[in-house]
Amino acid sequence: MRVAGIMSGTSLDGIDVAIVDISGRGWNKRIRTVALGAAPYPRAVREALLAVSNCETHTAEISRLNFLLGELYAKAVLRVCQGTRVELIGCHGQTIYHESGAHTLQIGEGSVVAERTGLPVVCDFRPRDIAAGGRGAPLVPYVDYLLFRHRRRGRTALNIGGIANITVIPPGAPPEDVIAFDTGPGNMVIDGLVSHHTGGKRKFDRDGRIAARGHVNANLLAELLADRYYTQPPPKTAGREQYGREFVDRLLATGLPLPGLIATATALTAATIARACPAQDGWDLIASGGGAHNRQLMAQLAAFLPGHTIRTSADFGIDVDGKEAIAFAVLAYETWHGRPSNLPSATGARRAVVLGKIIRA
Predict the structure, then answer these.
(1) What are phi and psi of 41, to 5 degrees?
(2) Residue among 327, 3, 335 nearest 165 (CA)
(3) Which pLDDT belongs to residue 67?
């Protein structure tokens, strides 16, 4: 079956689309990427999403954005699908609020996507896991296990988006032994500081160049690492409510030079990821997401984890920027066939459940 997966993450940088051929069932499914594409959010849309994320008002604006994102998702899919026959779309939506284990809201109206594309859509994946007692996240570990498990090697799949998260897969582990959780900030804090530093002209620290010019403030880093989230046992999730505007403002209030703050934020991301990884040597760390392009961040990870082999998902045939869109194509495929695709060991749910809602064209 050919499935389009749509993902827009907490970085709010735009829409990723993956066209994927999927066949088989269970853990022996075969996945082949047919096409990938990305569409940045128009500046006005990004600013509007930032304005309604992690807030308790703006009901009318949220409703408007819900339908507008449906239009943008449909356009992004149709552009990537040119000349390619797709049978199903899996659309994660844009998270604007997530309270772990209680409630969550992703916008991007699936009915609009189905109407504009003429294709069935699976959307709204997270609520069912929460209803089953889970935290609604992370959901990608199901696909990490499918793609990266190994009989003899331990592997940690790392995605560095706005938030960083890992999936820990011990050698030969069954799915119920997989552990997955958000380690803390990924690019979100770095991006916020870079935007401030450049007056909004840049949205991220390309290749970690600004961080490389700054000096890590050891006292500030130690203070940040003292947050009890980092020692809290999984399952656990994090989001913009923890590492968004208020967190960036707290760093700016220190009055430290901005390159130093960006260097310190980069070290915070690397240190919290490394702390969360298995202590054993001989594991593979398989990175994906926008942060995998940050050379400074990846170099710090290698220094923190000398006993690990640092690789990227591209080494396994999975595009670094497309892994999460690919994942939601796979999750949609499972939902379409009536099969559960959450990992209770990762989300804390009482049982495995079929995720999402199907909107037929």
Answers:
(1) -65, 135
(2) 327
(3) 97
Cis before 344? omega within 30: no
Q: CA-based angle 105:191:234, to the nearest 5?
A: 55
Q: Which residues pair with 14 in a beta bridge?
A: 40
Q: What tokens appear for 1 in the block?
A: 């079956």
What's the CA gap between 311 and 172, in Å, rounded? 20
- Residue type at position 109: E
**Helices and strands in the chain, H and E counts:** 14, 12
Cα–Cα distance measured from residue 23 to residue 1, given in angstroms and rounded to the nearest whole number: 6
What pLDDT is attached to residue 57? 61
Beta carbons of 29 and 115 less than 8 angstroms apart: no
Q: Is 217 left (phi over 0), alpha (psi -120 to 50) or beta?
A: beta
Interacting residues of 56 by C-beta distance below 8 A, sequence separation 6+: none
Residue with tokens 């700016």: 252
Question: Which tokens go with 19?
Answer: 């066209």
Of 16, 108, 106, 20, whose CA–CA distance to 333 is shortest? 20
Reply yes or no: is the peptide bond before residue 138 cis, omega within 30 of 0: yes
The pLDDT score that the predictor gives to residue 12 is 83
CA distance 13 to 318: 20
Taking the alpha carbons at both ends of the chain, their separation in whole angstroms is 17
Residue 30, pLDDT above cutoff 90: yes
Contacts of residue 297, defined as CB under 8 A and 6 or more positions apart, other chains included, come to: 160, 208, 211, 266, 269, 270, 291
Asked if residue 56 lies in contact with residue 94, where contact means CB atoms within 8 angstroms, the answer is: no
How deeply is 351 buried, as exposed, middle or buried, from its count of CB atoms within 10 A (0-12, 13-18, 19+)?
Answer: exposed
Q: What is the average pLDDT value for the chain, to the nearest integer?
A: 95
**Domains and their CATH numbers in the chain:** 2-138+322-359 (3.30.420.40), 151-316 (3.30.420.40)
Write the DSSP string, 73-142. HHHHHHHHTTT----EEEEEEEEEEEETTTEEEEES-HHHHHHHH-S-EEE--HHHHHHTTS-S---THH
Backbone angles phi, psi at 354, to 5 degrees: -75, 125
Decide: helix, strand or coil at residue 164.
strand
* Residues whose CB falls within 8 Å of the CB of residue 226, separated by 6 or more in sequence, listed in order: none
